């Protein structure tokens, strides 16, 4: 007796806001078909009823995650000290690299 369950959720026909649908498609990833159907497969339990409940729980968790708006990223800028340290290390690196060449030939300058 097979106990695996495949839950299908049609994202296009769902009564959800468009932004939630878009995030749900992104969260679904490869589980979303070309027909805009989210497929959740559950085979972790020994009974079909438990697998059905687990699949529903996973769908609810996905919809909840999709309904949360992502936080807007606030642009930040480095501190003045960080800029100074970065430039100091770049100058040090340049001096190290400048000193790597062949030493000047004293005989050629005469």
Structure description:
With 110 residues, this protein is mainly alpha-helical. The protein has a domain at 5-67: Double Stranded RNA Binding Domain (2-Layer Sandwich). The protein has helices at residues 18-28, 48-67, 80-98; strands spanning 5-10, 37-42. A two-stranded antiparallel ribbon has the order 1-2. Helix 1 (18-28) crosses helix 2. The radius of gyration is 30 Å and the shape is elongated. The model has no long low-confidence stretch (mean pLDDT 91).
Key structural traits:
single chain, 3 helices, 110 residues, mainly alpha, Double Stranded RNA Binding Domain, two-stranded antiparallel ribbon
- Principal-axis shape: elongated
User: Helices and strands: which structural class?
Assistant: mainly alpha
CATH topology annotation of the domain at 5-67: Double Stranded RNA Binding Domain
Radius of gyration: 30 Å
Low-confidence runs: none
Main beta sheet: strand number and arrangement?
2 strands, antiparallel
Into which percent range does the helicity of residues fall? 40-55%
Report the span from N to C terminus: 97 Å
CATH C-level category of the domain at 5-67 = Alpha Beta
User: How many strands appear in the DSSP assignment?
Assistant: 2
Beta-strand residue fraction: 5-15%
Number of helices: 3
Write the layout of secondary structure elements.
Layout: E1 5-10, H1 18-28, E2 37-42, H2 48-67, H3 80-98
Antiparallel strand pairs: 1-2
Helix pairs in contact: 1-2
